[in-house]
Design a protein that fits this description.
298 residues; alpha+beta; nine-stranded mixed β-sheet; 9 strands
Amino acid sequence: MHVVVYLDVLFGVNLLMNGIVLACMKLCLREKTTWLRWLIASFMGAILYCIAFFSPFQKNHFGYGLYFILVAAVMIKIAFFVKGWKKWVTYIGIQYVIAGILGGLINGIYYGWRIKTPIQTAWMAGMGRTYQEPKIIDFLITVFITSFIFYFSSRFFYRKKQRDDGRYQAFLRLGRQTGTVKALLDTGNSLTEPVSHTPVIIGDLTGLRELFDKEEQKQIKEFYKTGFYTGEKKIRLIPYHAVGVKTGILISYLMDEVVLWKEEESIIRKKGVYLAVSPICISSDGSYQLLLHPGVLS
């Protein structure tokens, strides 16, 4: 039995799959690369695969497997220019995992089309046609669907991880008053106290009820309505800019202690951090009551 292999098809399929695998690696690892490096790496991988396909050492499974590990290493080096053998080995393993996942999805979707169900058989018979095997266009559609699924799945899990990584529990102490709230790391928060340039964290009055008694809450609300404050606590007025707001003033307090922690992670303790109180809720769904300045975590 003779098997006919078209070199151009073999090269094209490998070029396509190499490009998709490298693109998925870039997405998952958040690595930086250029379109040119990505294309050269995919092209080189396709050439090396075609060489291996026609090489005489195919029967040597150990040498054949070692060769493809070398191909993966070359592609990674070109695409991402990794430094250090540990990172290199890790990326090779990740490449094989992603390739395995994509291969499983493609096979599952592609060969699922080839199952002759009673409905397909009846429909084909009614049209006077025989059941046709999928062609190259079916393969390309399958690859597109698989890439679509992988892309949005990766983005979903990355965003979930990013969202979870930025969540903290926060304990606040101001004089004798204490409170515990949920906090979110806001990388876009660059607000600092103008004189000392101390990082400023922002909380909403509704979520900070434990930290302020009823009289202080009343004074804060009165300040944002009239601009006057007659409370007993020392405050600092901090100017700010925001989208849709040219300028504004936030009432703030110098905290005696701020403690941040996560599950199974070390505790971060800070003193001398300013807490600005917003008159409106900072979270639309109420999932957090405090926005953290990145400087507080350092």
